[in-house]
Amino acid sequence: MTAYHHDFYRWTQEQAAALTARHFDAVDTAHVAKELELLGEGIALHLEHEVEQLVTELLVWTVTRDVWPRRRLASRIRATRTWIRDLLRASPSLKAAIPALLIERYLDRIGNSFLAALHAP
């Protein structure tokens, strides 16, 4: 068994060292490929979460009339937009997913709000 199963951190360091030294025969290719795929999926999931957060904040902002909550929301909206912008700068291929994510998350939020209003006492 490799360190992958017993000490993941040590395994990552060993794999990085083997790749850096170009000792490709020492690379655990199956697990490296799996971890790279999972890393990419994690970045995409993080983008989905940030878009969902932004849509929620924007919807709340549109119905909030009091000054203080709107200021706080505006600050959170700016921060979320910054996170998304930085994420897309680091992974520009994810830009293509933004339009569909916005539509999906918007429809999810509107649908959830509508259903909650129907079931409210």
Which keywords apply here?
mainly alpha; 121 residues; 5 helices; 0% strand
Describe this structure in words.
This protein is mostly helical. It has one domain (3-119). It has five helices and no strands. It has helices at residues 3-6, 8-20, 29-63, 67-90, 98-119. α3 (29-63) runs antiparallel to α4 (67-90) and α3 crosses α5. The longest helix is centred in the middle third of the chain and has 35 residues, at 29-63. The chain starts with a helix and ends with a helix. The mean pLDDT is 90.
Major sheet details: none
Enumerate the spans where pLDDT stays under 50 for 5 or more consecutive residues: none
The gross shape turns out to be: elongated
Q: What is the average of the pLDDT values? A: 90
Ends distance: 59 Å
Q: Whole-number radius of gyration? A: 21 Å
Helical content class:
over 70%
Task: Please give the count of helices.
Answer: 5
Task: Report the sheet-strand fraction.
Answer: under 5%
The count of strands amounts to 0
Total domain units: 1
SSE string, helix = H, strand = E? HHHHH
What class would the helix/strand composition place it in? Answer: mainly alpha
